[in-house]
Structure prediction request, 178 residues.
Amino acid sequence: MSALSACLLLALVAAPAERPRVVRESLAALERIFDSRIERQSIEDPFMLLGTTRGVYLEGYGAVLTAEVNLVSGPAITPFRPALSREEISRLHARKQQRLPELRRIMREMLMDAAGALEAVPAGEQIVLAVTLFYYSWEDRSGLPSQILMQAQRQQLLNLKQRGAAAAAEGVILVKEF
Prediction:
């Protein structure tokens, strides 16, 4: 064996194993799954996904997925209907408040699913899901968030998933509403 071959062999053995990269395809697959889950959450009264879910991997931090959702399709303002009654605005507000727990549940499930699917994300990094909520300019937004953000360390999510402890997710998943 030549000295050059020995040096190359030594360099290969001593080189740290390169950790797998988070590839765009794995994020794109999750985007499609999340879009489908949001749109098909209810056949009779689905959430309206505005645009599509977008994911990005930030090295050293983790994976971040974002979406924009309208919880309830509201009546439209048109030239033939230039304004809505207070009762209509109030009913829409109440329906949106009723739909928030379902969106939060879906988001928690999606976060846990992402932790399992994104195997290349290091265990100590974060999985984040942010949903921006759409509102019409005439809506009553009191008590309704503009955005819901959920995040947790990937390893903690995997531990919950292995134990089947989705109910315990509250202590692991950080939820912020703005």
User: Anything to note?
Assistant: The longest strand covers residues 62-70.
